[in-house]
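Escalation from tier 1.

The customer reports that the assembly of two entities below gives different structure tokens on two consecutive runs. Tier 1 could not reproduce it. I'm attaching the input and our single run for tier 2 to review.
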Amino acid sequence: MNFEDIKILLTEKLGLEVVTGEETSGLQPALLIEPDHIAEVCLELRNNPNTYFDFLSSLSGVDYGTATNRFGVVYHLASIPYQTQLTLKISKENNRDLNDLPTFPSITSVYRTADWHEREAYDLVGIFFKGHPDLRRILLPDDWEGYPLRKDYKTAEYYKGIKID
Amino acid sequence: MNIRNSKYDHALENYSKKIADASVEDMVLNMGPQHPSTHGVLRLELITDGEIVKEVIPHIGYLHRCFEKHAESLTYQQTIPFTDRMDYLASMNNSHAFVMGVERMLGIDKDIPKRIEYIRVLVCELNRIGSHLIAIGTYGIDIGAFTPFLWCFRDREHIMGMLEWASGSRMLYNYIWVGGLFYDLPVGFEERCREFVDYFKPKMVELNQLLTDNQVFINRTANVGVLPLDVAINYGCSGPMLRGSGLKWDLRRIDNYSVYPELEFDVPIGKGEMGTVGDCWDRYKVRVDEIEQSLKMIEQCLDRLQKELKRTPDFDPRAKLPRKTIPKAQDYYVRCEGAKGELGFYFIADGKSEIPTRVKARAPSFNNLSVLPEIAKGVMIADLIAIVGSIDFVLGEVDR
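Tier 1 run:
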């Protein structure tokens, strides 16, 4: 199944509002998905015998910069039986308030590997995944303040009262 | 001081409560971060009932060196040494993946001379053997066999010596550059490499007699830590982990990148010879078989490098180096078969600067390790050591 077929399949199965757009200019075409439906889309793509995207290669949390204030998650799926790849993207605007993190649905129920990937995205970019079973920081200490891969992150001068040189 | 928001701290509270409860009913045992058999600074928190492991909670991040943060402030070419430090046992494979991605984004991947591609594959396969030798040697020592460890390190020393000769460094090479190489291979390298292959082949037979077919070793590893194929795929396992579970999935064959389509090699998979498909022994055996295949590839590379792609005086491995590495505005995910599994880099380029907006590294060890709590449920503590060793992760890559 090629890119266009997948797009048609998704809109037919899950409704027109699921796919909000596409990016075909680069080397790898990407489907833009409505954030609230990402788990359904992944489940459909994994279980449909025509697509079988059973392998989540990578899940990246992205901060698109202070100009747009957009946060997104990029999913790279791969199908082992068909040897194909697909990129899904979701994004949302957010005011960068640390008390109001950008929130997306978790896809751990579809791909268990998303568990650690989502923890990493939460840890470094500050994206909250609703429905994640154990969303703690993974690479940084539990008491770390801020999210280092955000574009507005200021390097901490003190860690627990100790000056960092 | 505390600006923590309890709205997002539920999981942390639940976790603290779980550990507090477990220390009443069962015993909480910390394995690591300084435990020798965790192969680096990995801390495993075990909830145990006597000798039985009820649950494993891995804690990672002790070796976090902010690769992704650094990559956002350095140019592509400057980031290559940082990729070397991810999987420091197979640095060549890391830089190969990274460089391949950048070259494809720049659109120069088709212009790279054949000789450079062959040298890249040659050093990558040498490095893969080195990495697998460490996996085998340290696995032996985890289980209690001391000799294989010494033998593996002795043979690996030859590889290190050769790569040092080529790049000037023993472990962290910075040898593969965007558009070319640091230097051409030194004169006499091919002959020395052939010597090594001839020396190493009988050593592998010896190693197999000592460890692979050793009944004590088989008893410790067969039927232990069985990883079913569906679980492996769902957890994103790749490399020898996935192939040990019986799936022929090797990106060198699937994606046919670099010069791998021109090379002849098999993809070994776990067959459950000693127990169940996907047990520790199978994963170990896949690595042993892969060394043989890598040797085969090295010989083919050497054939080409000594005949039609011979060294010429005017050959400059830096001739194709781009003056400015500014890719068009795009995002690209590159994947290739590292020593531990699918190694991927996700780039976002803004099209204006030499510095990427975002680089995400998809480390194979990170994903392979995440399956540990699943397969280590209900095993004995001694078997947990065998399982951890058979995953063969490098903490530098898990934590990045």
